[in-house]
Task: structure prediction
Amino acid sequence: MRNSFFKGSYPPKHITHIANGNARCNVFEGFIDFLSAERLGYNDGTDTIVLNSVSNLNKAIAPLREYSLVSCYLDNDNAGRAALVKLQQELGDKVMDKSALYPNHKDLNDYLMSLYPKQTAKSKLKL
Result:
């Protein structure tokens, strides 16, 4: 559940694994980042794991071992960076950090939102 005042979920939290039989897998912290990647065209048929919280990282490691390439679209904060380091320690060189695509933004969704700035009512009147 989510709105401008609240973001929450019902326990227990678990990962979401979308398996299409691809050798590559994208990893996202949350479902909104996954949807943002869809909009930006970053998913293109790859398998996906949505952590739904970095606290679920350990649940994702076993299925991620099956992939030859793991692309991480994690948040640009301490928790996201720590999750990336943990994945690199567990899975080695097949882990790719994709946060360079949105370096000045909190996460992939923040980057997507910056591409479409909100118009104020005043600016809409200026046709």
Observations:
- The mean pLDDT is 90.
